[in-house]
Structures are given as structure tokens and as C-alpha cells.
Amino acid sequence: MIENYDYVIIGSGFGGSVSALRLCEKGYKVLIIEKGKWYAKDDFPKTNWNLKKWLWLPSLRFFGIMKMTFFKHVGIISGVGVGGGSLVYANTLPKPKATFYKTGSWSGLENWETTLKPHYETALRMLGAAKNPYLELGDNLLQKLAIQEGRGEHFEAADVSVFFGEADKTFPDPYFNGKGPERTGCNICGACMTGCRYNAKNSLDKNYLHLALNKGLKIIAEKEVVGVKPIDKTDGTDGYSITFQCSTSLFSKQKTTIQSKAVIFAGGVLGTVKLLLQLKKTTLPNLSDRVGDDVRTNNESLIFNVNLNKEKDLTKGIAIGSVYHADEHSHLEPVRYGRGSGFWRTLLVPVVTEGNFFSRMFQIAGKILRHPFTYLRFVTVKDFSKQSIVLLFMQHLDSTLSLRKGLLGMKSSVTKGRQPKAQIPTASRLAEKYGKLVGGGKSFVVLTESVLNMPSTAHILGGAVMGLNANEGVIDKNNHVFAYKNMLVCDGSTVSANPGVNPSLTITALTERAMSKIPVKET
Ligand SMILES: Cc1cc2nc3c(=O)[nH]c(=O)nc-3n(C[C@H](O)[C@H](O)[C@H](O)COP(=O)(O)OP(=O)(O)OC[C@H]3O[C@@H](n4cnc5c(N)ncnc54)[C@H](O)[C@@H]3O)c2cc1C
Ligand code: SF4
């Protein structure tokens, strides 16, 4: 017998989890289908050298919490697992500046700054946002940099989704009147991006998903949705059949189909856009031609600053503890990993900013061969995470890419506007200055940036953006998909302008708003 639901949600990240709780509260029968695994605190890897538990690479039997995806124009890191990107994220919850609400394909559809305000407040409360009380070495150096730049007042401690309480002490639920799980105080180990092994990070399984499970939500993990097809009427009036298969088995690709009155795509940009592009060619041909357009990278630059000073410890603190608003468009955050997490050193090369592939290879080789021992000393420092910091630079100046269906999944292309760049001069300048403040710190980037001029991002957004109609967007201002009934998109792919700051809070607020428009189930 085919099982029936009111709502099936594809993916359990920020958009999926918020949708699940709010729909369960309204009396609907809800199922989440999630590709990744369940992770309890002791399942997380101690360091990122435990690739099997850190990376999601099913073909190698790695079922971790972070996936790396490379297209021609961008390299992307994203989260996988029950709780989506919240398992691997750095907890930071900033609000975008005013330009965000007035630009992009959603501008004019609403007064977004006003309409989203109460939903940002709900999102901050639900995610347990708190001002980081621990400014440690990496943050203090950023503050020094801000002061050196004459902008000391533009440095601040970050708002983060972490329970601080008292380090390593467990408390009954501090957030939801006893309906949430116990929490343990953060011990500032810096390991948030390999998953919190101390029950201090407010990942989605500790708030939205926990509460939704208590209200009847069902979650099926380790299953990937591969098909969505209208039942009877082609516009979805009669609901959809949804097909999924195992995502962790090498051999068993047996498909299961269930039915639902409504479906919510919440697989993050890489999950949702891939699925929509595929379905447009098969069972959902009336999807907007704009699927895959307006993909944004947050105009981001990730620069590793490594130093040779064994005495300094840059791991102490939470993953992102502070932010410097470098100018009206730009933000800089120091990002740390916990002790022993040194994997990234294997991919680092000196920064090269100009030239074609051959010239870049030549320049990289030149930089290494001119000072081979210096290069080796930097990439072989004893404890890489203790002696390095990632400088995350983000700008809300616009740049866009498109994702299209390729032979093997998706491919990227440049269709309009400015394309995101691998190196941003302000970011390089600030990284150099930061390195001097650490004392002898040198800048490196992941090799795809220097060799292929390919920017990297942890904040891929867009691809199913809002618009006035199907010529301008994939969804309307309330997240409903044009041309289909009972079908919504609620995740990072709906972000319709460049926030220029870490986006999870915005995805949460946008989904809270979309869910507030759905009526209580009629009985
Ligand atoms: C290392 C790192 C650090 C970050 N730090 C921050 C930070 O400090 N602050 C911040 O705001 N953001 C941060 N981010 C970004 C943040 O994680 C994402 O923006 C956010 O998680 C996106 O939310 P989402 O709702 O779009 O979906 P996601 O959280 O990406 O979740 C989508 C889920 O859907 C699942 N899925 C996809 N396709 C399918 C399918 N076909 N079937 C079933 N399941 C599917 C995926 O496995 C995934 O679990 C960070 C990201 C990374 C990688
Ligand atoms: S710093 Fe350590 S204890 Fe605190 S939230 Fe991050 S991983 Fe958990």
C-alpha cells in the first residue's frame, strides 16, 4: 500500500526543518526525506583527518557531514545529514544590510526589510542566538586590524547559535520551556565545523527538528529523492508521487514511491536545483525556464593565513567568534578549526591572481621553487589548525552564475552580469595585514583558486529565485512554484539577492515567513 502524507519535504537543512515544525504545528502529516545520515554527538569526527566521517563521498564509502562540489566557475562546500548544513556550519547568524532587500529578482514584490523583521526575530530565538562572550586570539587580532584601519567601531562579537551556559556542564532545556533537549555549555574547542561533540551547538536537530519530531514528524534518512510526479492532474492539484532510493548503499538502488498532497523542495541549492533541472526535462515540464539562474556565491573569498609560531593557539574560541565590517559592502570573519584538524593543508598553494592556466601554474611553481623550504615549513607546521586561521571575506556586491543540466549532473555557466572572482583585492590586502599581526603569517588558498581562477564558497545561494511571474523567477513571493499547485521551495536556492553575509539566518527567516502563510489544516 502506498503511504500518504500532507507534505513531503526533500532535505532537512534550515528550510526543511523550519517547514517541518511549522507544518506539524498546523496539524499536517509531514515526512522529511534526507540523503545524509543521522549524527549524534559522539558520531562526529575528532578532526577533519577522519575523512570517512567528515566528508560526504558515497562512492568512496565516506558518509560524513560535508560535501565538496566543483563546477567550472565555482568550488562549493555544503552540509549533508539530518540537520543539513547546521551540522557542519560555523554557527554565525548575521543579518544582511539594507541593499539586500532592495536588489535582485525579489525587489519590489514586498517591503522585505519590514516584512521579514518579525521572522528574523523568531529565527534568532529558535536557533538560540547569543552574542559570543569569548573573544580569543583570532578575534583579538581581527579587532586590532579594524583599529589599524581606523574602523575599530566596525568590529563586533558575532551572534551565534551556541549554548554557552557553563563550560561542559549540562542543563535542562534552556530554550523551549522544557520541550527541547538538554544542552551542555560550550568549551570553546573551536571544532564546530567538524560537528560539535559536546552538545553545545544549536544545530537543527536540537531545536526545529527535535520539536517537530515530538509533534509527529517522520524522518527517513539515507534516502535520496530522485522523482516527483503529479498524480492525475498535471498541475499537481491531486498531489504528487515522490520516488526515492538509498543514498548509502552501493548496490541497492531499489526505488520506493510514496504519495503526498504537497511537496517542499528543501535540498539546498545543490539538491534542489539539480532535482528541478532534472524534473523540468521529465515530469515537471512547466517549471520556469529560470530554474538554475541567479546563482550567487555571496561574492566570497576564503584565504588561509598560516604562521610558524608554535606558541600561539588559534584554535581557542568558537568557529567564528567575531566580524569586522571592512567597508559598507564587505565583511571579514576569522574562522577556526579545532585542534588536530589539518586536512586543508594538503590543498593549499600560494596566492596567484592573474593569468591563464599555464601562466598561473608557472607562477605557482615559481613561488614555491624560489623558496621551497619556506613553503614546506608553512604547509607542514606541527599543528595546522593551531597555527592557521581561515579568513572568510564576503561582499554584497552582486555577481551571478547559472547552473544547467549537464551530462553528469549539473554544470555552471556565466549567463549575465558579473561573474564571481577567485581573488578580491580588498580580501587579499586584509589577509596580508592580518598575517603581519599574527607575526609572520603567510596567505595561501585552495589550489583550485590559484590554478583555475575558481572562487570557493560555503554559501551557495539562488537558482530557484522569487519573481513576479515565471519569466522572472521560479517561485512567487510566498515560495510557491509557478505553474504547479501545492509545491514550494524553502531553502538557500530561494535567496533572491546577494546577502553578502552568512545566510542561514536569512533562509530560516524566509521559511518562517513562507510557513506563516500556510493555513492550519482543516479537520
Ligand atoms: C563549513 C561550512 C560552514 C558554514 N558556516 C556558516 C555560518 O557560520 N553561518 C551561516 O549562516 N551559514 C554557514 N554555512 C552555510 C550554511 O550551512 C548553508 O547556507 C545552509 O545550511 C543552507 O541551508 P538550506 O536550507 O539551503 O539547506 P542545507 O542546510 O544545505 O540542507 C539541505 C539538505 O538536503 C539534503 N538533500 C539534498 N538533496 C536531496 C535529495 N535529493 N533527497 C534527499 N535529501 C537531499 C542534503 O543532504 C542536506 O542535508 C556554512 C557552510 C559550510 C559548508
Ligand atoms: S566551540 Fe566546541 S563545544 Fe563550543 S559549539 Fe563549537 S564544537 Fe561545540
Structure, described:
There is one protein chain. With 523 residues, the protein is an alpha+beta fold. The protein has a domain at 133-191 and 300-395 and 421-456. The chain has helices at residues 14-25, 51-54, 99-102, 112-126, 137-148, 208-214, 268-280, 357-370, 372-379, 425-438, 447-452, 504-516; strands at residues 4-10, 30-33, 56-57, 62-63, 66-70, 75-79, 130-131, 155-157, 159-160, 170-171, 183-184, 218-220, 223-230, 240-246, 256-265, 300-306, 322-325, 330-335, 348-350, 388-395, 402-406, 409-413, 442-446, 456-457, 487-489. The strands form seven sheets. Strands 1, 2, 12, 13, 14, 15 and 25 form a seven-stranded mixed beta sheet that branches. It has a seven-stranded antiparallel beta sheet with strand order 8-17-18-20-16-23-19. Strands 5-6-24 form a three-stranded mixed beta sheet, with no helix packed on it. Helix 5 packs across helix 10 (425-438). The mean pLDDT is 94. Bound molecules: flavin-adenine dinucleotide and iron/sulfur cluster. Residues 162, 186-192, 196, 198, 200-201, 318-319 line the site of iron/sulfur cluster.
How far apart lie the N and C ends? 24 Å
Overall pLDDT confidence: 94
Hetero compounds: flavin-adenine dinucleotide, iron/sulfur cluster
In the predicted model, the low-confidence regions spanning at least 5 consecutive residues are none
Rounded Rg = 22 Å
Number of strands: 25
Strand content: 15-25%
Q: Which structural category do the helix and sheet elements fall into?
A: alpha+beta
**Sheet of most strands:** 7 strands, mixed
Residues in helices, as a percent range:
10-25%
Number of helices: 12
- Shape descriptor reads globular
